[in-house]
Amino acid sequence: MQDILLTLCDQIQQAILLEDGATLSRVLSREDSATCQLIINNSQNFDSNLSQFRILLPKGWFEIFEAHCRSIITSQLDQQFFYQSKVLKEFSDKIYNDSLPWVLPVMAVLTNDFRRLALHLYGIGGINEQQLKNSYTSVLQPIFTQTMNCRDGKRDGALFVVNNMLRILKKLNSHVLLETIIKKMEHAKMLERIKLTHGKAHLVTFHFFLGYLKFFEGNYRVALESLKYAFENCPARFSKNKRLILLYLIPIKLLQNIRPSSTLLKKYNLLIFEELSRSVSRGNVGRFENVLRSHENFFVKRGLYVVLERLKLRVYRNLFKRMHEFLEGVNKIPIEKFQIALRVAKLAIDKDECECIVANLIYQKMLKGYISHSQATVVFSKQEPFPLLLT
To answer: Does any domain span residue 314?
Structure first.
């Protein structure tokens, strides 16, 4: 029992002497199941051996190792969270500022472990929403500020911290704080540094959150660029992440009247969008509303419902475009014909409501023309009466 924990202490000591960040991060990771199991199996006399650990490990590292072991040994969820928070705080306060960039892998592992544990405990009720918020404000935010103020290669630690912060803020639906963090990264020109020093992995994560934020802000051009980059550069083996990206990318594509392929939807188990996209392209208003109602909980939970509601104008637009083509492109069509088209699509509305829909399409530049109220007629432009949809 004692020998196993002393061996771990020796590995930590050797890794510090050799400046071996990879080994050190493995020993201190909650994700290394073999090492964690060794700690659990040899925990009976852990407290009685603390004095030996203190002698073996340098100042600061002893406190980190102790908190790390206690976070694994305890079965109390709030104590797991408390000690894992302490691991990260001790590392940040006592080690990071006075060390060289070789400790970056340790920062990456500790912040990842902290975020995973926080979200896991929050998901199973081990911590409440306020505690999750505190994990951001009292643990990660100060470390982010600290790493951003570093003048050497250790400033890259901000990249590890920020992506974990963004994941927690997404869970909390805190778009204001998301925007604040992203602006700080952009102002500090950290995106360029990510490209130069850390390749695509961190850039994909950052672009997803940038696209996610812009999606909810209604800035669909930037959202499209960022989410498209994230999807195309996310490795195929991370199918769960690619599916998450598509949840926000597909609605933007639909806003542009671009349908996802059935193959894509089947591959990522997103067939929920197939009938929706078909109803949009065909202008089937009734079917579109039925799909939204049937899957309302799914769309609301992911923050998609309001944006998908915006698609309704696209559905009207596509319905009227088909009607216009059926009438062989005449440039004057009575409002009554629009009402008939809507009734066929399972939506019965009066003349005034119909005029409002047409007026909104004209205002949104989805239809070129004007309404002649005196003649109760829509006069279409002779050039591109239905312009290409851009967001």
So the answer is: yes
Neighbours of 270 (CB within 10 A): 15
Q: Encoding tokens for residue 202?
A: 């961190």
User: Is position 339 within any domain?
Assistant: yes
The pLDDT tens digits along the chain (391 residues) read 447 888 899 999 999 999 999 999 999 999 999 999 999 998 887 888 888 899 999 889 999 999 999 999 999 999 999 999 999 999 988 888 777 788 888 998 999 999 999 999 999 999 999 989 988 889 999 988 888 887 766 777 777 888 899 999 989 888 888 888 888 877 766 666 665 555 577 788 889 999 999 998 889 999 999 999 999 999 999 999 999 999 999 999 988 878 899 999 999 999 999 999 999 988 999 899 999 999 999 999 888 988 888 888 999 999 999 999 998 888 899 999 999 999 888 888 899 999 999 999 999 899 999 999 989 999 999 888 998 875 5
DSSP helix/strand/coil, 256: coil
Q: What's the total number of domains in the chain?
A: 2
**Contact in structure between 82 and 126 (CB atoms under 8 Å):** no
Spatial contact of 45 and 57, defined as CB atoms under 8 Å apart? no
Its domain, for residue 126, covers 2-197
